[in-house]
Amino acid sequence: MHSRTTSPGGAAGLLLEDFSLEMTGKDVPALEEAGRLLPGGTRVNVTYLGSEGLAMRLTAARAVKALGFEPVPHVSARRMPSRAAFEEFLSRLRADGTSGQVFAVGGDPAVPEGPYEDALALIRSGLLEQYGVRRVGVCGYPEGHPVITGPRLWSALEQKAAALAERGIPGHIITQFGFDPDPVLGWIEEARERGIHLPVRVGVPGPAGVRKLLGYAGRFGVGTSAAIARKYGLSLTHLMGTAGPDRFLRALADGYDPQRHGTVKLHFYTFGGLRATAEWVAGFREASTPAS
């Protein structure tokens, strides 16, 4: 057991420092609306959806920067049709001053559309640093992946961490979202035991409708047993309700030990919208701040 110097609420507030969140290319108006609630410099990941073209992704990254936040464009390996297309994307980001940080993902297609099979291939290409990328995020899966086995996931993460270290590129891990902090903390501890010491941003679903949350959970293989649902505050019988991550975050903070888990921050998946997430964060931080 580790000693505490703050209350659980205060510890949760500390985990919220330097949080990040994500948006799609279509979310620029929503970010403009929510922007006043977000701290300046907040990292905003811009997803790489197959339905959104290059122009939309670039516009979104420019908007993030113009609003005073740090854009983190996603790069989807299997959706990249060629080396030339990869270079064009990175070149355009660099021209806009938005190439400093990226998030490298494998992507959804079962068969790569071009020469890059996974995020490791993007890192090993050497193009990221050539076009001004200074920091790279990669994925982590505390509850596993629907189609990739656990040993393969660990091997891939170990190789990505090693490849980043070899190239002198600082990195971090963003985990898939979940409703139970116990497997998340256990996974982080195992990562440290395996020699993976990248900072971890724990994926947290922003407040959203229960039906929507369960839908995303089913899509990504996230556990939603009755016990887990009760623990999180989800009602499996009242699907029209909404749920926020209050209980999850407090439980995560209660189990978090910096000596065992290293650097841990939060990353919000804005399933219920950017404004709803920003309002929740602002409200939770205010409630977690000890009275003077």
Helix content: 40-55%
Tally the beta strands.
10
Please give the oligomerization state of what you see.
Answer: single chain
Tell me the β content: 15-25%
Major β-sheet strand ordering: 1-2-3-4-5-6-7-10
> What is the count of DSSP helices, taking H or I runs of 4+ residues?
13
Whole-angstrom Rg:
19 Å
Quote the distance from N terminus to C terminus. Answer: 29 Å
The major beta sheet can be summarized as: 8 strands, parallel, barrel
List segments where confidence is low: pLDDT < 50 over at least 5 consecutive residues: 1-9
Overall structural class, as computed from helix and strand content, comes to alpha/beta
- What number is the mean pLDDT? 88
Order of helices and strands: HEHEHEHEHHEHEHEEHHEHHEH
Shape: globular
Nutshell version of this structure?
The protein is an alpha/beta fold and 292 residues long. The protein is built from 13 helices and 10 strands. It has helices at residues 8-15, 28-34, 54-66, 83-96, 119-124, 127-130, 150-167, 181-193, 210-220, 226-232, 246-255, 258-261, 274-288; strands spanning 20-23, 43-46, 70-76, 101-105, 135-140, 171-175, 200-205, 208-209, 242-243, 264-269.
